[in-house]
Design goal:
2 domains, alpha+beta, elongated, Elongation Factor Tu (Ef-tu), domain 3
Length: about 260
């Protein structure tokens, strides 16, 4: 073996020995836990574990009978315009009467000035009643909308497309506000979260594509991903910098939670 070849082999071995391989965890881009905004008894489960759901799908409903009645009551009050109609009719009559009385007073003085003033006061009071009823209608509409919004909080709706992986409560069980009831995961888009030395993190730019390896079915596969996050600070204890590398998982169907390795050399 000639000298140049020996030098080349030694250089290659030295490079391989210097190569830095880091291990990270595959995580889904969307992994959420949902809870109820109100306390109560679970009335209905619209889903079961393993079901695929879409944004806006109903998931769990808390017993909402009383709140539904409250919303209906508020709607009836809001749409009841009898008092406003009565106030408008009363004002119309008083206006006509006031006009006739003013003409009679101006021409014949058959009515006293005090009687005319009393009638004017009644008319302006009636106009005030109309405005008060209009403002009251606005308030009643707002109260109805509040009751309607509160009713919507009794149903948990999916905020993402995904798969239901866990349900912690069953029908007729009691749940408290903020208690976790189910988990939804979307594995179509995942990312590798990994911690690397600061000197390697400076080589990786956000938006850059890099390759990493995953052991799958007793063999390694290479996946290309896009760097979506490079932490601007290093961890205080380890001195490592956190990276996130996003990849499309619709084809490979990689199971989140497994490890992957990357060589930044």
């Amino acid at each position: 073996m000639n000298f140049v070849l020996k030098i080349g082999i030694i250089a290659l071995l030295f490079t391989l020995l210097q190569a830095q391989e880091y291990i990270g965890i595959i995580k889904p881009i969307y992994d959420i836990e949902l809870s109820a905004l109100v306390e109560g008894k679970i009335d209905k489960l619209f889903i079961k574990e393993g079901d695929r759901v879409k944004i806006g799908d109903n998931l769990i409903r808390i017993d909402d009978k009383l709140q539904r009645l409250e919303m209906d009551r508020r709607e009836i009050i809001w749409k009841d315009t009898a008092q406003l109609s009565s106030a408008k009719k009363n004002s119309k009559i008083l206006k006509s009467l006031l006009h006739s009385t003013q003409m009679l007073y101006n021409k014949t003085k058959a009515v006293s000035r005090d009687d005319l003033r009393v009638l004017e006061m009644k008319y302006y009071t009636a106009k005030g009643d109309i405005q008060a009823q209009i403002e009251n209608e606005k308030k009643e509409k707002i109260e109805y909308e509040i009751a309607k919004n509160i009713l919507s909080e009794y149903t948990i709706i999916s905020p993402i497309d995904g798969i239901v992986t866990n349900i912690t409560k069953q029908k007729s069980e009691w749940t408290k506000t903020g208690e976790i009831l189910l988990r939804i995961v979307n594995t179509d888009l995942c990312f590798l979260e990994i911690n690397v030395d600061e000197k390697y993190a400076t080589r990786v730019e956000k938006g850059k594509f890099v390759n990493f390896k995953i052991a799958l079915q007793e063999k390694f596969i290479t996946i290309k991903g896009k760097v979506i996050f490079v932490s601007p600070v290093a961890d205080n204890s380890s001195g490592l910098v956190r990276l996130k590398i996003q990849f499309d998982n619709r084809v490979q169907k990689i199971t989140p939670g497994i490890s992957a390795s990357i060589n930044l050399d």
